[in-house]
User: What shape does this take?
Amino acid sequence: MKKIFTILTAIVLCSFIVSAQSYLTPSEGFNAIDILPNNDTFSSFDVYGSLLYANDGDTIRCFNMETGLEVSKFGKPAGYTAYPSFVSISPDGTEIWAGFTSFSNTDDRIYSINIEAGTWDLKALMPGNFDLEFLSNKVIVSGLNSSDNSNPTSIFVLETNGTNNHQQIIEIGGFSSGLATDSDGNIYYATSFIDGSTTNALYRWSSVDVNAVITNPETASLVLDDATKLTDIPSGAYDCEVDAVGNVLFNFNDFSSDKVLAIWNKTIGDGYNFDTLAVATDGMDWFTMVKSCGNILEPGDDDGVYVLSWGRPVAKVMRNKPPIINEPLGIISGYEGDSNVEINLNNHFTNPEDKEAFIYEIVSNSFSIVASASINEAILTIDFLEAGQTTILVKATSNGQSVTDRLIVGVYPEIEGNYTITDFENLTLADESYWSGDDGSGSFVSGLAKFNNTQSEWSWEGWTYSNISDVVTPGFTNQYSAITGSGFDTLASNGKNYGVAYVSSDWVTNETLPLPLTFSDNSAHHVKGFYVTNSTYAALSMEQGDDFTKKFGGETGDDPDYLKLSVWGLIDGVETETIEFYLADYRFDDNTKDYIVKTWQWVELSSLGKIDTLLFNLSSTDVGDYGINTPTYFNIDNLYIVPDATGVERISIADFVVYPNPSNGVFRVKADANENMEVSIFSINGMLIYKNKNYQNSDLIDISKQAKGSYFVKISTSQGNYSKLIIVN
Assistant: This one.
């Protein structure tokens, strides 16, 4: 006997219960439901989208699985008595192909039914037919093609012209099982040998070998040795299936153990190379047909594998839907030593299956010296420790599925002392607006700091100020926004404004030019430091990449990228040490430590001493033919300046004048000196562009052919050396 019959009572009760908890026990990460749970008399079935076509013995019925309603039915031709072997829907959904067999195998038929018209068309007689699949423009069937049960089970190309000369293309043996095909034309079959003579396995025959046999009928049939064995199987299989993306599914039955629905794990060869999706544990269960929709490994409503067991309704096994982040953990900030913050994680994660409580865990804390993190049940507790930024990854797990979200924690130092704070709040702005410098004023002042702005035909460079809160729009159109969405002052005084810096490039060398900041009283000062963060433009560019810039870390996350801010001072033209601060750093061996600054972070500058100018510059690993690709923007707020300017001997503004300033590159120098002076002019990066050893007061100097930007004018007399900054528009 080479086939197994399913004999069921042909009674169907129309049910309006669409689904219910299943008789199947799913593996972790999967869920199982019974489709139309009151309908348990089907012997064969297929699915097409939301439609279930199932044969109860005498009638093929079509149900809408979303509503549970029977939408059509197709009664077996009058006078024909046989048992259903398979139901297969044509790829275009217009036809049902149905197989029937009998104990004697003397009148076994295969029909096609026109779904729209409801007409039955006898396509072929084929003894012992078991399963049918479509292979390009061919129809292939597994079974005997013989009333002699001693003949080997095989796979045939069905002949539908009435001659019934079905072409045997693969000879297998054992009891009949279902077959499957994939989009590449390969054929799959899981064997069912029950006498112990042959080890059961799941096999795949290549489309090349199959086509060679089909196109040359004189060629000998393929056999098991011509196939690739994908995995051994503990006992005889009933059916196999390939889903829409190539996952291979199969089931197998054993009288003495659980019945198993499995998926091949894509390891080829000997051994059990499969994972269990679900089991039926009742001794009376016996798996039959397997069908699928979509990608079984995706947690979508339209994805899943369907299976049938004797006397049971059709069951569907689906990947559990992962938890949903309904409210991102986002960003929190606080000062060193602030009281801890408690976050109820249940307010941030939702379980779509609504079956189990979440299990939360901290996956990583990139810089635990900045802030500590702990979880007690659903409460995440954050303690602020040292100034800096850390990223805490929190994983929520439910029903075997997990989702991870990140919490960015910024910690600030306590600043003590007598300072004038440049906080930009004296600058009037409407909500969600910015000052771009297009009024031609050329500069603005906040506190003791003076910020220059240079306009050009194409753009601006230097400094602007803003209160734009857009942290989601990528690209140049959002160049005035800070990634924090507000100024640092919002933490304490409801301030919104912040400074915006754009570091321009030399179009000849393609190198960025240091960006100066001076003091409004033309005196030297100690600068304690300032708060800095990334612009939204730069942060999203580094995080996501775009048409002009790379995604930091690259595709693997291993590229050692960075964006570095360098800050140094000048006193009478003499440079101080340089302070470096990384606005983004992906150089860590441990990628969980990689970061992009998204909080206000303190930059300490007290080691620079008294200075008359602050200089800023940016460098990046993402460099192209035209300089840095990373947007050269950053934002500052709360610049702390010591108001007392004593302690440094300086020449007063009356003694040394550069005028006009700003200028078009043509200007004069005047100093209260009774001697000729040596006048030198340097670019902002230290290149000498002009020198006159015998300059006389108020002689004309012309550097208009130089690039627009900032320059230093240095004079040398017997009394000493002095310098001033000039802006060339």
Residues 656-728 form a domain with the Immunoglobulin-like fold (CATH 2.60.40.10).
